[in-house]
Write a structure and sequence with these properties.
By secondary structure, the chain is an alpha/beta fold. It has three helices and five strands; from the N terminus they run βαβαββαβ.
């Protein structure tokens, strides 16, 4: 993400992502679909309860994911991916963002 001129904030779990998200605004949340303790869709559902003005990019390495209702309407990037595919997926996800950007870049990644 830094190579794409974003200012990413990494975290190691959904719970950590929730804490970080509460402390500062983000334009984009990038999360794996399958994670221990809290799935990516569960994380997004939780974050959307208090904030609805960020874009979402789900990442998965599993074939067949993407058809579930929890992922519909969000950009999905399949692993493995190139930097070019990541750049494109981020651009598409940000274009789906429901409101005007609060800042020039940023991401919270969990997983």
């Amino acid at each position: 993400m830094q190579d794409l001129d974003y200012d990413p904030v990494a975290c190691s779990s959904g719970a950590e992502a929730v804490g970080i998200f509460e402390s500062q605004p983000f334009d984009l949340v990038i999360t794996d679909v399958i994670m221990p303790e809290m799935t990516g869709p569960e994380l997004i559902k939780h974050l959307k309860q208090s904030h609805d003005d960020f874009a979402v990019l789900f990442v998965t390495g599993y074939v067949g994911e993407g058809e579930t209702g929890d992922l519909v309407g969000y950009e999905l990037l399949r692993k493995p991916f190139t930097v070019g595919a990541l750049a494109n997926a981020v651009a598409v996800a940000l274009s789906r963002r429901p409101s005007e950007p609060r800042r020039s870049g940023g991401a919270a990644a969990a997983g």
